[in-house]
Design brief:
This protein is α+β, with helices and mostly antiparallel strands. It has two domains: 92 residues, no CATH class; 36 residues. It is built from one helix and six strands. Strand 4 and strand 5 form a beta hairpin.
Length: 131
C-alpha cells in the first residue's frame, strides 16, 4: 500500500496509509494576509495561519481519516513528505463522534438533493412520460 511518511522539522508526524484508501493527502495550508497587497480572508482578516494536515478518504467507509490533526506551522518550518510503499503505516485514527454526525448529515443532504433533483425532472417532463 502507499504510505506518506511526513516529517516536521525532522520529527515524524505520521506514516499515513491504509489498505482501503482511495485518496491520501499531505497538505500545507495558509490563509490570511499572505502578501503585502492581500486583504486577508473572511476567516483570517489580519495576520496569517499556516498548518499541516495529513488525511485521506476511504472509498469503502466514506470516512476521512486524519493523522495528527491540524499541526500549526510557522515561517522557517520544514515539511518533508517521503512517498513509500509497505505495510507499516500508522494505525488509521478512529473517527470521532462529531465526524460520524457530520457524515450522517452529509449523506442526508445528498439523499435530499437527489430526491429533489429527481422530483424536479419528473415534474418538468411529466407530460412527455405520461402520454
Amino acid at each position: 500500500m502507499l504510505i506518506y511518511q511526513v516529517l516536521l522539522n525532522g520529527e515524524l508526524v505520521s506514516r499515513a496509509g491504509a489498505t482501503d484508501l482511495s485518496v491520501l493527502t499531505a497538505t500545507i495550508n495558509s490563509v490570511g494576509q499572505l502578501g503585502p497587497a492581500s486583504e486577508g480572508a473572511d476567516s483570517q482578516r489580519e495576520g496569517m495561519r499556516l498548518w499541516l494536515e495529513v488525511s485521506g478518504l476511504s472509498s469503502r467507509t466514506k470516512l476521512h481519516p486524519n493523522w495528527g490533526g491540524q499541526r500549526e506551522l510557522k515561517i522557517g518550518d520544514e515539511v518533508t513528505v517521503q512517498i513509500t510503499e509497505g505495510d507499516n503505516a500508522d494505525p488509521v485514527p478512529e473517527p470521532s463522534k462529531e465526524a460520524f454526525e457530520q457524515m450522517r448529515r452529509q449523506l442526508a443532504d445528498l439523499d435530499r438533493n437527489r430526491f429533489e433533483s429527481a422530483k424536479r425532472f419528473y415534474l418538468e417532463n411529466r407530460e412527455r412520460y405520461e402520454s
